Amino acid sequence: MTQTAVQSWSLGLTLHLVLAVALHQGFATVAPPTVAPTTAAPHKDPSSPERGNYVVSNNGTVCLLASMGLQLNISFSSLSQNKTVQEVVNIQPNATNSSGSCKSDIATLRLTTDAQKTNLTFSFTLNTTSNKYHLSSVSLSAAWPDMKDPVSVRNNSLDYLRGSLGFSYMCREKQTLDVVQTVSINIVQVQVQPFGLTGSQFGAAEECQLDEDDMLIPIIVGAALAGLVVIVLLAYLIGRKRSHAGYQTI
User: Mind telling me which residue stretches traverse the membrane in this protein (predicted)?
Assistant: First the structure.
């Protein structure tokens, strides 16, 4: 194989690797939820929500820890515009009261904001057989000034934020929790542990698939580039050796 052929082959291999990485990233990206057409008016999304720290105690013992930024996405009938609008509102941690309760297999975090007249409740369920937990229920009630009618929704069949007993669930990437068709919750920089706490600190973190995929991409790209350097170097050495061989004295 000539030096030019080896270099062409190495370039083609690299392009295939880069294409494979791009396809992997495309498939790993979470598709946005399908939403039925509405008459929602355009709106401007607020900045990324501030991360809040929330604690639930049971008889003086911390039983649930959560650290996350929350953003509500709600469609409702507007009084001022006389039509359906869609608003995205950040939960402000410094204006939010947290409470909740803990049982052996159910843990609840309630967030209340007086200024926004919003009550948001997360319920986690523990499977005592597999020692796995997940966010199983979310309820939301909101009575914002421009709402023609208060919004009150609940979904008891969710399966988000899955973790293991004694470990915390962590995800740096933004996730969208679909509650009902008209309500979803954007959650960012989340770390939560509803069961198996020892003291007031998070247990070892189990990272979400989104974070693992983001870490995998640069590793694959780096490996591809390193492989390209090795192949080009070998092609150069082989070509140089053959060139010297051609000038040997007979």
Answer: 215-238
